[in-house]
Amino acid sequence: MLNYETITHFLEKGEFLESANLVGELLEENPDDLDLIIGYYSIKYWQNREHLLSSYKNKPIAFLLEEWEKFESKLKEKNFKHNYLTLVIKRYIILKIIQQLRNKFNKEGLEQSDFPFLLSLSKQLLSLHDFQSTKEILSYCIRLNSYNPLVYFYFGDTYCLEAEITNNIKLYPKGLSYIRDGFLIDGNDFPIEEIQSRIITNIIKEVKFLYEGQSERIQYWISVYIMLKSFYPELRKLTPEEITEIENEILRLEKERQNVSKKFYEKILARLIFYYLIILHALLFHYSDEERLKEVLGILEYLSPRIYNEVIRIINKEI
User: Fold this and answer.
1) In this structure, are residues 257 and 268 in contact, taking their beta carbons and an 8 Å threshold?
2) Are 275 and 250 a contacting pair, CB within 8 Å?
């Protein structure tokens, strides 16, 4: 254990030569240990690129992150998975990136062109379970582009993962609120393969099982099934203006549904059901209109008996 503690100490300071020597010694004793093989490869990879880590200050702000993503691609090519040692290296690299970002922010501020870099950085920080820094970066993203749904999806995933890691279930409604709001902006580009929280990953697995191998249909319905898991009273209350806008979208889609071609019918149907679920949630927890509530339930039963039955289970607290 002393060796691992010493290796960690060296890696946290970016001393790759010393770390490689220690891991090499352990590898000689345990030549088939996959974690040591991956660790040794990773340390040597960055040892050979130490000049990049010392000269990055004159490079574009995204430079180090791009180098890290190249490294992760190399790991994937070799079917190597992250382990304790690679994550220690990652923390060291990400800390350098954060330092560079803070320097830029203090000197120049952030620009719209920094948005893709910040979004990628937030994903890396989340994988390290650095929730505070992830939320800080995503807050910058919202300032730069408040209409990009990915920011809301990543924000939601961050709160949901934090809820799981810290066992703070009060964070779930906040996370699911962000995800719902992201779907309200655009329901077509949910980052299925990038989600890290268990609650959303399980929903994705359920939808993939229902629509196996049909990527378009999975994207159509993912918002519906996430919304079914979002019936928390604490979900962000929509404003009357937002409710009106959603009701107007429902009217538009109902008209389209009558004449749309078979090819696009299911896409419109899924979007329509998603909107009805949002209205239903608002009527159950935030607004009182018994007549509209009965009407929405009747429409849901007609549009999709399966979704309707799930909703009834929710209302009756059978789940």
Assistant:
1) yes
2) yes
Separation CA 91–CA 97 (nearest Å): 10
Where do we find the tokens 């239903």?
280
Assign 142 to helix, strand or coil: helix
Q: How far apart are CA 191 and CA 120, in angstroms?
A: 12
Is the entire prediction scored with pTM above 0.85? yes
d(C-alpha 11, C-alpha 96), whole Å: 13
Query: What's the pLDDT at 154?
Result: 98
pLDDT tens for each residue of 186-213? 988 899 999 999 999 999 999 999 999 8
Q: Which tokens in the block code for residue 268?
A: 């419109």
SS (H, E, C) 79-122: CCCCCHHHHHHHHHHHHHHHHHHHHHHHHHCCCHHHHHHHHHHH
Q: Give the pLDDT score at 137.
A: 95
Query: What is the model's pLDDT at position 2?
Result: 46
pLDDT (0 to 100) of residue 85: 94
Residues 72-85 as b/e (b if ≥16 CB within 10 A, e otherwise) read eeebeeeebeeeeb
In sequence order, what DSSP letters do the residues of 238-302 get, joined into one string?
PPHHHHHHHHHHHHHHHHHHHH--HHHHHHHHHHHHHHHHHHHHHHHHT---HHHHHHHHHHHHH
Which pLDDT band holds residue 319 (cuts at 50, 70, 90)?
very low
Distance CA 205, CA 188 (A): 18
